[in-house]
What does this fold into?
Amino acid sequence: MGAAQVADLPLAADILELGKPTFTAEDTRKAVAAMKGADLILFAGGDGTARDVAAALPEGAGMLGIPCGVKMHSGVFALSPEGAGHLLAGLLAAPERIQWREDAEIMDIDEAALRAGHLSPHLYGYARVPQARTRMQAAKGGARRNSAAALEEAAQAIVSEMAEDVLYIVGPGSSAGAVTKALGFTPTVLGVDAIRNREMVARDATAGMLRELAGEGEVQLVLGVTGQQGFVLGRGNQQIPPDLIRRAGLNGLIILATEEKLSALATPRLWVDTGEPDLDANLAGFVRVRTDANKFMMIRLGSG
It folds into this structure.
């Protein structure tokens, strides 16, 4: 569980023997519980891993997540792996300058309910985390009020503007899924769909499927915004490969969200975390977010 990765690095690492692995969540809990006396547990994963780490966290220890899961609704994750690195470096260099919060939410969703079209987040507890406004993501929040009509009209407007022979990759979530619904199809709530010439050409597509469908042609991405966090890429839509994101570019991002969701963002900007820092930098800038049929909000897009 990391020993091989640190073997060739200039790090002073103590390797703990935990017995035969079970390849289940029990391994994570056992490893965390063995780190008695630790000030901070740094982990990589998503909400499921965060739950396991929090469940076994030694008394007084904090936790910090490197985001690399599909579901990251909890408030214990850095905005990006680089953000986690900067925050950790700050803790080591000047710990007195880093503030801590004791009530970061550990959240997870009921996947079965979400696949049935019902967002059912559950609070599993709270954790101690280092706090930095431009490095840490907020816990994911839901819509403040019902804006279904505005979202539906925005989706219909996007459909009416779709160009011929362009591959539209539709991300997960109810906002992006409204475009699929406007075409008369059922969206894949947790997956990625593909549309060409107003016909669905792939459901719950993998990266390989998307590359094959795209060929050498034009690609555009239809994306929603995660509540409070503000992510449009890198949270739940890792099926969209970086090469196709690069091809679409900033001008190929079609983003829709309600005004209430944008006004409730933890920071007044949107975020991307594609796994490729140079691509994240190329996507930085201002984007238009469609909030209704003929209404847009300009908002800055950046990376952690």
